[in-house]
From TrEMBL:
Protein name (database record): Dimethyl sulfone monooxygenase SfnG
GO biological-process terms attached to the record: alkanesulfonate catabolic process
Organism (species): Mycolicibacterium rhodesiae
Highest taxon in the source lineage: Bacteria
InterPro entries listed in its UniProt record: DMSO2_SphG (IPR024014), Luciferase-like_dom (IPR011251), Luciferase-like_sf (IPR036661), SsuD_RutA_monooxygenase (IPR050172)
Keyword Manganese among record annotations: no
Length: 376
């Protein structure tokens, strides 16, 4: 089963390790680091191995294995200035950011980087980050109503003059941003990503974002989300692209890859996983239809805190390339990858897996017969 639009080539992004603890909540060795020097080297490695995007995480204080955190916007700008082609997606929380201030910062970052700045708008999953800063914690669907306004205001300020917006959460009066972000035919404005799995998140993604980010999903889960998100986009006379999170374990043999997964789970930091599970499943289950993020995640799923094992990108290069291609045929435009040992595994992915994905895509294009033309 496919959606009505399939990308010619799937794009690749990676999670920036700008928080400590790596991408799995486990005591297994993770050869990665949250410091700037490591991340500069990693970003350059990624852009030289076929990755077009990187996503900076957002956490404001220690939680569930992430004792230290670099702020996402400033860290993204630093990596933009250290690279040449990589696009940085900075995660932000409405309620902790004012959209006009973010629009101003984003326009500056866009100019400094030659048009490579993007944002991922996250409606908030960790109550303590808001309450510890003295900000109100809104009910789930109210957070997404605020995000809907945030997305609209951000785009208006980036594209219009004398912006006027009267919402329940934001009031903008005759505001003009100068300079606007860079505007090119290839990318008119900074790309806006919307994260989440819930009904409200899908609606926001379809109506207001350029991209919708999903937690890890199998084929059926991806198709169900894609259909709904693109229905919302169609109703709004627009188009949205789809990004999917997946934790990638590529090894020379399937047995090696599965043994790595087994060890990750066996060495899970149980108190941290249990604490994270209690926090996020309450948030997911708080939606009226129980379709929020993490609402049905198992303990094993949450050892990778964005359900990345569910996407099943675990095996040989050939197996992973085939599965990525199958996701593309269902409508996925981008794979957001997490890794155990970032530096060497992104290199391995770029040299062993990504070329196979491109070969599959090229073979599929070649298999489509050209239209019949009568001879003169």
């Amino acid at each position: 089963m496919t959606t009505e639009r399939i990308a010619e080539n799937v794009k690749f992004a990676y999670w920036v390790p700008n928080v400590s603890g790596g991408l799995v909540t486990s005591t297994i060795e993770q050869r990665t680091d949250w410091n700037y020097e490591y991340n500069v080297k990693l970003a350059r490695t990624a852009e030289n191995n076929g990755f077009e995007y990187a996503l900076s995480q957002v956490r404001y204080e220690a939680s569930y294995g992430a004792e230290f955190q670099h702020e996402s916007i400033s860290f993204s700008l630093a990596l933009l200035l250290a690279t040449e082609r990589l696009k940085l997606i900075a995660a932000v929380h409405p309620g902790l950011w004012q959209p006009g201030v973010l629009a101003k910062l984003g326009a500056t970052a866009d100019h400094l980087s030659g048009g490579r700045f993007a944002v991922n708008v996250v409606s908030g999953w960790f109550k303590d980050e808001f309450t510890h800063l003295g900000e109100p914690w809104l009910e789930h669907d109210e957070r997404y109503r605020r995000t809907a306004e945030f997305l609209q205001v951000l785009r208006k300020i980036w594209t219009e003059d004398e912006v006027d917006f009267r919402g329940d959460f934001y009031r903008i009066h005759d505001f003009t941003l100068k300079p606007k972000p860079l505007n090119t035919p290839q990318r008119p404005n900074p790309e806006i990503f919307q994260g989440g799995n819930s009904t409200a998140a899908r609606r926001n993604g379809g109506r207001y974002a350029d991209w919708y980010f999903s937690n890890g999903k199998d084929f059926d889960g991806v198709t169900e989300q894609l259909v709904e998100v693109r229905d919302h986009a169609r109703d709004a006379n627009r188009e949205v692209k789809f990004g999917l999170n997946g934790f990638i374990i590529a090894r020379d043999t399937e047995r090696e890859a599965k043994e790595v997964l087994r060890e990750i789970v066996a060495k899970a930091d149980k108190p941290a996983v249990d604490g994270f599970r209690a926090a996020v499943q309450q948030a997911g289950a708080s939606t009226a239809d129980k379709r929020g993020m993490w609402a049905d995640s198992t303990y094993e799923d949450l050892v990778q805190y964005n359900d990345g094992f569910r996407t099943q990108l675990i095996g040989t290069p050939e197996q992973i390339a085939e599965r990525i291609s199958a996701y593309r045929r269902r409508g996925v435009d981008l794979i957001l990858g997490g890794f155990l040992h970032f530096q060497e595994e992104i290199e391995y992915f770029g040299t062993r897996v990504l070329p196979l994905v491109r070969e599959i895509e090229a073979a599929e294009r070649d298999s489509i017969a050209p239209p019949f033309q009568a001879s003169a």
